[in-house]
Amino acid sequence: MKVVVTGSTGLIGSALVTNLRADGHEVRRLVRHAPRAADETQWHPSSGFLEPSAVDGCDAVVHLAGAGIGDHRWTDDYKKMIRESRVAGTTAIAGAITNAANPPPVLLAGSAVGYYGDTGEEVFDESSPSGDGFLASVVRDWEAASRPAAEAGVRIVNLRTGIVLSPEGGLLKQMLPIFKLGLGGRLGSGRQWMSWVSIADHVAAMRFLIAADDVGGPVNITAP
């Protein structure tokens, strides 16, 4: 199987690439810098365009690229970057897939449970409406950018991901050293909701979704 991956140096992308290669699959990585390895292809996600040849003939595309959510202050400029990095990049991927001579049968496109907003005690699922606020509006635009590929007949899976926990990065990497030193404290009342998933389970979910021909649309990737 040949898989094209964006965001391959991030927490989720790097874990997926390692997992795919361990099983003997070929991975082509789309990177923003000049190619440094044979498996790299340069792209410019901010342009909203990608050459169709970058995805032509592959078996799946997994699009995970986007500006970090939790590692910067949300200034007006950075909020604009968060939105544009997701929408323009997904627009480029969807456009390339749509125009490829031999398009991949499936696109796994990054998304987030921020779609639902702050739902409090309510239980939401994939059919629930979008919430309010900045993140919910970003996710709506993000997912909408993948629709042209779906209209072209490609199976689209929008990965509505919770907080991914791994000692290698993200929230847990920042928190673990503090707590190991005995300096950690309570986070909120202890009754607040936090939709999380381990990195191993997230990678396993993506591998399942690549192969699951009968699954499409939004899929929540969190622990129960």
Commentary on this structure:
This protein has helices at 11-22, 76-99, 134-144, 147-151, 170-180, 199-211, and strands spanning 2-6, 26-31, 40-42, 60-63, 106-112, 155-161, 163-165, 196-198, 217-221. By secondary structure, the chain is α/β, with parallel strands linked by helices. It has a seven-stranded parallel β-sheet, with helices on both faces. Helix 1 (11-22) crosses helix 6 and helix 2 runs parallel beside helix 3 (134-144).
Q: Report the radius of gyration as a whole number of Å.
A: 18 Å
Summed over residues and divided by their number, the pLDDT gives a mean of 93
Q: By CATH's scheme, which homologous superfamily applies?
A: NAD(P)-binding Rossmann-like Domain
Examine the coordinates and then state which fold CATH places here, giving the name of the CATH topology. Answer: Rossmann fold
Structural class comes to alpha/beta
Spell the H/E element sequence: EHEEEHEHHEEHEHE
What is the level 1 CATH name? Alpha Beta
Percentage of residues in strands? 15-25%
User: Could you give the order of strands across the largest sheet?
Assistant: 3-2-1-4-5-6-9
Total count of helical runs of at least 4 residues:
6
Distance from N terminus to C terminus (CA atoms, Å) equals 30 Å
Estimate percent helicity.
Answer: 25-40%
Shape: globular
Counting structural domains, the number is: 1
Query: Which blocks of ≥5 consecutive residues have pLDDT under 50?
Result: none
Q: Which architecture name does CATH use? A: 3-Layer(aba) Sandwich
